[in-house]
Amino acid sequence: MRTDSKKYAARTYIYVPANLLSMKAKIGFIGAGRMAESIMGGLIANGTYDRKDIISCAPSESTRARIENALGVRMYKTAGEVAGLTDVLILAIKPKGIPSLFEEERLDLEPRHLLISIAAGTKIDALHSLSPKCRIMRVMPNHCCEVYECASGYARGINSTDEDVRLVESIFTSFGVALEVQEKDMDAVTGVCGSSPAYMYMFIRAIARKGIEHGLSEETSLRLAAQAAIGAGKMALCSDKSLEQLIDGVCSPGGTTIEGVRSLEGDGFEGIVSDAIEAVIQRSMAMGK
Q1: Would you call 94 helix, strand, or coil by DSSP?
Q2: In the predicted structure, residue 43 carries a pLDDT above the cut 80
Q3: Among 201, 185, 96, which Cα is nearest to 143's?
Q4: Which among 31, 169, 197, 268 is least surrounded, fewest beta carbons within 10 Å?
Q5: What is the pLDDT of residues 51-93, one digit of tens each?
Q6: CATH number for domain 18-185, candidates 3.30.70.2190, 3.30.200.20, 3.40.50.720, 3.60.15.10
Q7: Residue 132 contacts by C-beta under 8 Å, 6 or more apart in sequence?
């Protein structure tokens, strides 16, 4: 159940006149999947870009119609059409589809193009070999841009300029936190922030279910559990205390919390989480080979 009031976009169709379909855009998306839709929605909602300045493409007519209805952005069938109308491109397709984009569809990017890849595990060198003339940067965000709480890591790449870095930073900090890292660290970024929201949702779900089991309504239990997660995250970021000190600060001697902490430690909680993150990192590394 969604309780957040800042959903990024109204789901209403916005008619785009035919004479606007060939207008230049400020940013284009190659791909229109869940992450691309989340980023587009976040950029529109926070005013970083007007919907008329964003374009995207998808081979599926149903996908194009869905995105047009949801966000009101201009949709095209091919990446080549999008590349012809903007200098800034976000590559948001599955890694296995990238080679055919350049080799079979003959996507030809020029030096004027900045290609921002959010494809997990896909290295900058691999993209450069497919498209040697354009400038390239790599970003790993997560889908929390929908509520302006995205965490992203970005790495500068081949031929990218300081201006490119500033642009990427401005895009991804507009709906969260974006930190520059070395490309060699991007697999770790994928594990730490790209995939980790799924595990946090699982943790919130487990907490909320136990609250329901003991008499709380579903709405009350979920809201309390989710708010506790938000508060803990802000404390971790804003407090001058270490995580160990924060844990101790909740655990009064002989109180309730210490019993839960002991239970988690006995079950190997941190090891289980560590194994999950390691699995993501190893998968990301394998995808890059």
Answers
A1: coil
A2: yes
A3: 201
A4: 268
A5: 999 999 999 999 999 999 999 999 999 999 999 999 999 999 9
A6: 3.40.50.720
A7: none
